[in-house]
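ok here's the first one, seq then struct tokens
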Amino acid sequence: MNIRICVYCASSAQAPVHFGEAAYELGRLFAANGVTVVFGGGGVGSMGRLADGVLAEAGEIIGIMPRFMKELEWAHPGLASIRLTDNLAERKALLLADTDAVVALPGGCGTFEELLEVLTLKRLGIYWKPIIIVNQAGFYDPLLALLQRSVEERFMDERHLAMFSVVRDIGEVMEAIRSSAPWGPEARQFAALR
């Protein structure tokens, strides 16, 4: 399998260890399956552990980060490939470019913002590849409840809940990508509720 997957994850070194361990295992899993990983380029927290996992299996990983973050020495030191951008908006666009799927691990406001943006792009029929939310230890339960409420209150269509798949364990990610519901530009027909 020769696919390219974008992973959204955190740069906090203070989060519980099990989140970093899961990121490491995801990196190893992707490398073992020949997946090229595209991520934010960071060297600490789940980002760093993801990269460590890919590199431990001699896999391919590409970091993308704004220049100011590289200047702050936030980049993972083991990356052979890192692309620098002028700002966060450019970074987010490059993270998604030519990817075959997006996987969101638990994280903070940056991870939330990236995840909600890609969901919005999918709702508008701009990005139609699989989006997998790793709901490790129920981390995303509040967000999933909020999305459900958005449907119940008619801010979103019931069909929008098919924009993403939810898994609880890293071992379920590859199958979730393979079995994701098809999505395309026709989603624009029900993007706005009229």
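and now the second one, same deal
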Amino acid sequence: MAWKQITVSRRMLFIWFMLAGFIVLLSPQNLTNKFQFAFTYVFRWPLTIGRNISLSAAKQQPIRDKDMVSRVEYERLLNHLANVTQQRDDAQRNIQNLSKMRNIPAWERTGFVLANVITVSVDRLIINRGKEDGLEKDQFVLADNSIIGTISDVGTRSARVRLFTDPASVIAVNIGNTDWRLMKGCGNNQAKVEMVKRKLDIDTKIMARKTPGFLDTPMIIGKVVRCEHNDQPLVWDITVEPVCNIQEIESIHVIVMNPSE
């Protein structure tokens, strides 16, 4: 029995290819990834040969002097040297920063974990240190020798810092020598202390109160930017802002009290 010849018009072929393209476009990503891996596996030999031909064509002329290296190898080594040099400089800078902190008498029995800032969002930071580095929830965080907030969440190798300006933040602060109040974040890079018994001057320094197990000595946390009358007579509400530019912070110190040896 002879096979019947089947003819397909160009228009029909075009329609089939269009439908196939839409099916691939609308397919789930995991399915298209499997298709891509399968294609790579089936055609791995032609792809490998093509890549080798491209690399061979890109190579420099053979090196005549055995003591010389190719331009590609030279640039690779130069990049490696730049990376190692930068790592050395960063390590030296970190050692200097930690040494400066430990020279303060109040911090002699305190540990500091130096961390880099990964991301800065509104009233929060993400840092590249976590439980493996001794971090715990509620530990105080320093930047430019001032308290900027506390650890709110800790992962294995990262942590989230809640700035004292976050609406969820409540930190005890000292106002003057004896008076203390709770400072609550209100967003927009500001916090408030309510029911203060006296009017404070602009730029008056506000200190984070000593907290057993977390902070051995009061430390600056912000400055007064506004002082307004409260609804009640003879008391004031003050607005506080950080004493450093948090948006430009690249690294911080986490205060670790009684660090394990």
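notes on #2: The chain is about 30% helix and 30% strand. Helices lie at 10-26, 29-42, 44-58, 71-102.
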